[in-house]
Amino acid sequence: MKNVLLVEDEEDMIEIISYILKTNAFDVTAVQDLSHMWNELSKKTFDVILLDVGLPDGSGMDALKVLKEKNVKSAVIMVTARRTDMDKILGLELGADDYITKPFNSYELLARIKAVIRRTKASNEEEKIGLDDSQNVFRFGKKVIKMDSYTAIDENGNEIDFAGKEFDLLKLFITHPSKVFTREEILDRIWGKDFFGEFRTVDVHVSKIRKKLGDKIIKTVRGVGYKLGESDG
After folding, report:
1. Exposure check for the chain: N or C terminus, fewer CB within 10 A?
2. SS3 state at 210
């Protein structure tokens, strides 16, 4: 049975979502604020966190950032009443695995949860395969990318952290250095065929990687997509 941590302050929504999930064989723990969320996370591991954006004791977006900084392995689906593209893009930039907007129906909620669980499982299986010692470090100019720890070291010796999907995308380019990937291929490989997002998701993550490692790390192939760039030293 998969464990879901529901972080939602509206009692009606807690009742509705809990009912949907429990009747579909999910184990649900519901809390109404961030302090109780951190308390639950200190006690057990959850497969999925359904995280509302607006909570009584803080922003779900800020909490998402901390979750990623702490390298919490649970998949995170942001839940919000806001419908603007910028809110969705911000959530994805901060490392959310998906984003659902109220009101939603039970079928959409279940589909999104099951999709992120499948993607997380596939990612974990890939992690188990691992890379051999000679592939644990990738050098791009004076930057060192540490494949086994999802980090990089810049030319000044400073560590650069990545959100999970950012590094998964970077790793895809590194392990296929000559291949040009279309946005559709990238979405399928990194987010899975069940992902409901748009091509803009790929562009956002490429932009984040470039900000951290420089524009040359990923090359835009006009009219096609993206590929690993060529280091100039």
Report:
1. C
2. helix
